[in-house]
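@channel sequence for tomorrow's demo:
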Amino acid sequence: MQVLGVDRVVLATPDVDETANRLNELLGISFDDFFAASTETVAGTNNLVSRISPDGQLDLAGPGDGDNEVARFLEENGPGLYGVAFRVADLDEAEQHLDSKGVEPVGRIDWGDFSELFYHPKHFGGMFVLLAEFPHPVTTNVRKEFGEDAIGRDDE
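structure tokens (generated this afternoon):
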């Protein structure tokens, strides 16, 4: 398995807009439009909300409808590091490698050329690990285009 680097860091927060505004005020980090995403995992459907920095390196994830993995994480741990997405050269190879070590994904998303596997925190020191494969650098606008059919945008 070849890990090419960190794709993005995912922070869990109960209020995505408040956290985005605070990071902008204190650190000058801006965030793209708010969007909602639905993912299927072994735990069921997760309706999440997110804002990603324009460089795609920081993802603020919120609980959306409140009955999902982010909501449970916030209840148990409070806001903070939720997961890290790593870009891999070959997602199928990475999945096979982890499977050979007894680590199976709990979910998957395919958005055009962008694919991502989700791995449970119990295998990675308490944080979700996401493995992503895509043929080119991904900006948030491209992610949104890939997700047009898979995610619903909320441009409040």
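heads up for whoever presents: Residues 122 and 128 are 8 Å apart (CA to CA).
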